[in-house]
AsnC family transcriptional regulator (Candidatus Desantisbacteria bacterium CG2_30_40_21), 163 residues
Amino acid sequence: MDTKDREILEILEKDAKIPLAKIALMIALDEEDVKSRVENLEKKEIILQYKTIIDWEKTDEEKVYAFIEVRVIPKKNTGFDAIAKRIYNFPEVHSMYLMAGDYDFAVVVEGKSMKELAYFVAEKLSPLPHIQSTGTHFLLKKYKLDGKIIEEETMDKRLAMTL
């Protein structure tokens, strides 16, 4: 990948709505060249999707997220991939990662309530073959998401304690 493609990717990663004409000015290319490069990056599936970051806390939509650490016994001949596919195909699964450490997978799940996510873990995830153990951590507050600060630091409104 050449430098110009890398620059285009870095710009689009920060703001997918930026006009191609502005990108062209930023990296000293013709707008048609930028358009062609972006189309090529999409065709090669280097650019997979354009995404909007939404602060759901500011809407009336209830969303609950949990991070689930999953320890598995890998399947013979297929390793982790077959187990991962079984897990990531559940509609509750938002993201999934293979990782090194005490657990094999980090799974981010989304639901409408803690009860719904607890049901997912107890009734769908844990009973799967090759699942050895899970650890669930519910998300309480987001500070930064995909490089975007969600909530700037605010002044502490509590009264100071004096002795």
